[in-house]
Amino acid sequence: MPLLAIHCLVIIVILEIFHIDLYKTRFDGSFGNVVSIEGTVKAAQLKSYYAAVTVDVGSENVLVKLSGWDDAADVYSLVGRRVKARGLIEKPSGQRNPGCFNYGMYLRARRIYSVMEVSKYKFEAGGIVNPVSNYLAASKGLFYEALREMIGEGDASLIFAVLFGDKSFLDSDIYRSEEHT
C-alpha cells in the first residue's frame, strides 16, 4: 500500500515539473484562433471592463469575456438563454508566481477550460432554455439597477455584495477595507 502511494506521488511531481496538462478540451487545437461557439449561459456577471459570461457548450464550459456591455440588467438576463459567440479562444493563464493564486486551476474547478474574448457585435442571444434561471438572474440585475438609482453606486454595490455575495460591483477601495474587518 505505501508503495502505491509513493508511485502516485512521484507521478504527480513529474506532471507538475514538466507542466503536463491532463485536462483535454474540445478546443485544444484551436487556442489562439477565432472560433464560434454555441451553448447555454449558466452564469453572468458584470465586471469593470467586460461582462463575464459562462457558457455551457456540452462537455465543458467556456468563459466568454464580453466587451461593450455595461448594463447589469442586460447581462444578468443572459442566464438561461441559448447564445452564439465568435471570438479569439485561449487557454486560461495558470499560476504566475509560485505559491500564489492559480487562475487556471480556479477555472478548472468550475469545468472552464477555455476563455474567449468577444465583442458585443459578435455575440447573439437567442431564446430562453431555462426560464427559472433566467427569471431569477434577470430579477437580480433589475434589483441592482433599481437599488443603484435609489441610493447610489457605492451603497448599492455594498448591499448587493452582502445580499447576493456578488462582489463584482464593489469599488476596489471598499472591497479592500471590508476584506480585513
Provide structural commentary.
The chain is α+β, with helices and mostly antiparallel strands. Helices cover 38% and strands 28% of the residues. It has six helices and six strands. The protein has helices spanning 2-17, 72-76, 103-108, 131-151, 153-164, 172-179, and strands spanning 34-46, 51-56, 61-67, 81-90, 112-119, 123-128. A hairpin with a 4-residue loop joins strand 1 (34-46) and strand 2 (51-56). Helix 4 (131-151) packs antiparallel against helix 5 (153-164). It is globular, with a radius of gyration of 19 Å. The termini are far apart.
Helix and strand topology:
Layout (H helix, E strand, L loop, with lengths): L1 H16 L16 E13 L4 E6 L4 E7 L4 H5 L4 E10 L12 H6 L3 E8 L3 E6 L2 H21 L1 H12 L7 H8 L2
Parallel strand pairs: 3-5
Antiparallel strand pairs: 1-2, 1-4, 2-3, 4-5, 4-6
Q: Can you tell me the overall shape?
A: globular
User: What share of the residues does DSSP label as strand, in percent?
Assistant: 25-35%
Main sheet characteristics: 5 strands, mixed, barrel
What is the number of strand segments?
Answer: 6
Q: How widely separated are the two ends?
A: 46 Å
What is the number of helices? Answer: 6
Instruction: Supply Rg.
Output: 19 Å
- Helices and strands, in order, run as HEEEHEHEEHHH
Question: How much helix, percentage-wise, in residues?
Answer: 25-40%
Find the structural class using helix and strand composition: alpha+beta
Low-confidence stretches: none
The average pLDDT is: 80
| Main sheet strand line-up | 1-2-3-5-4
Oligomer state of the chains in this structure: single chain
